[in-house]
Every structure is written in structure tokens, then in C-alpha cells.
Amino acid sequence: MRFARFTLLAALLTLAGCNTRELDEAGNPITDEPEVSSPCVPVVFEQTPLTHCTADPARHAIRMVESDANGNPLRSFATYAAARPSGAPPVAFAMNGGMYGEDGHAIGYYVENRQRLKSLNRREGPGNFHMLPNGVFFGEASTDWDVWDTERFANDIGDRPQFATQSGPMLVIAGELHPQFAPDGDSLRIRNGVGIDPAGRAHFVISEAPVSFGRFARYFRDVAGTPNALFLDGSVSQLWDPARGRMDSGAALGPMIIVEMRENGE
Which of 8, 93, 185, 186 is 20 to 30 A removed from 115 (C-alpha atoms)? Predict the structure, then answer.
């Protein structure tokens, strides 16, 4: 069961009279909730409750995790949390991130600690991953985070990034919504995604109720202000937010995006 899904959903729906939540000067969503030391806050956009988590390079570092030291897929936040070494930096939050097969391994480009575990996937096919253009979320641990469409990544990236995960479809491409999205289509799912704003912050969003691709993408473009944003997954989407005591569970996961506090972070 998704952790506290229905309790959270009921609370968020009381906010549904407001279409959007603005971002403050630090790039974080403005909320009327009491102060909580978490980068993740509940928001409502076009009557859909979402949770918006902001990673700031000045405070956070990002890593990808898929398997344990023996190469066995971890498949859940709980398993990963139990396997974290003592003395590891505190986890600010985590989300699942990137399409994967039944074995729990990524089906697209995947880099962990600068080791490429899966090559770039440019094949055509069925499903969300192949709704072209798809894209790659990548960067160094605490600098130069980006979301690019796959063709741009293939043509312009020379040096291997420290982390990367390929997924699809792109939600926003150079300020425009994916050309195949209807404004508010009939395909409604719990979804999560990531976009990068002009200041270099990574905005991770997960819906708390089923949402269409069009509406989800508009949030990244119009509220998060991310010129490029990438769909990470749907239906299996999960969030770990330690400060709020939330650790989703349910479907077995593949790659996970772990956002950690930096040593000089607050």
C-alpha cells in the first residue's frame, strides 16, 4: 500500500479551490502548511494534489542506486535504507527514476557512480518510454544537473556523467509540451517526473491522485518553471521523504534517485 496515500490525498483535496501554488525566491513551492524541515511540500494544480520536492545544488547531492553490492536489485526504498552504510549523508528525499524491466534493471541509459550499466536506448517501440522524444536526467553529484532529450544527449555529451537515467516521454522540451500530449487526456495515472529550472535546481514532482500527461507537464512548465522536464514513471511512482515520515511502498522498483544532504548543507 502507498504510505499514507489516502490520508494525504484527503488533506490535499481541501486545498483544491486553488489552482496553483507559486514558488518563492528560493524556488520552493509556497504552502500554508506549518514549517517542516523537508524539501517536499504538498501543492494543488488544476484540482490535482501533487507533492513537489526541490533539490538545490548548494545543499544537496544526487546519486542513482539500482542494486546492492552483489548486483542484486534493491527493489524498494526500505531495502535500500536498510543497506545504507553507517556514516552516509542524510537522505533529503528519494524517488524512483527511470524505466526498468521485470528483473529490476534499467532498460535505458543508466550510469551509477560514473559506471555505465546500460547503453543509450534509441530504439522505437510501444509504451511510454518509446513515446519519442524521450530523454535523460543526468549530471554530477552536486553540479550541472540537466534534462535533455535523447537525441541531444547522444549528439552533445562527450564525457560520461556521474549519474544518469533514461526515461520517457519528455514532458517539456525547450519550453514546449510534448507534441503528443492532449491538454487533459483520458490516460490518468499516478505519475512522477523531474525538471531543471534556469537556476540549476532539480524539481521532482509526484502526483497524489491520477493525472493526465498534459496536466502534469503543464505544472512543470507553468509552476516549476522548468524548460525541460522528463517523465520518470507512472502507476509505480513512489517517494521517500524522511522529514515527513513518509516511505512509499508497493510495486517493486527499479532505479532510484537518492537526494542527499551535502556536508556543507543546512
Answer: 93
Task: Determine the pLDDT at residue 263.
Answer: 78
Residues of the chain under the 70 pLDDT cut: 1-22, 24-28, 30-36, 264-266
Cell of 262: 551535502
CA distances from 253 to 185, 217, 234, 236 (A): 26, 23, 11, 7
Q: Contact at 8 Å (CB) between 192 and 207?
A: yes
| Grid cell for residue 133 | 522524444
The predicted-structure confidence for 83-113, as pLDDT tens digits, reads as follows 998 899 999 999 999 999 999 999 999 999 9
Nearest to 174 by CA among 133, 141, 213, 232: 133
In three-state form (DSSP H/G/I as H, E/B as E, the rest C), the secondary structure along 4-40 is CHHHHHHHHHCCCCCCCCCECCCCCECCCCCCCCCCE
Q: What is the DSSP string of 80-139?
A: HHHHSPTTPPPEEEEEE-S-B-TTS-BSS-EEETTEEEE-------SSGGGSSS-EEEEE
> Quick one: cell of 69?
553490492
Closest CA to 201 of 24, 50, 20, 3: 24
Helix and strand counts by DSSP (H, E) for the chain: 4, 17
Total-model pTM: 0.88
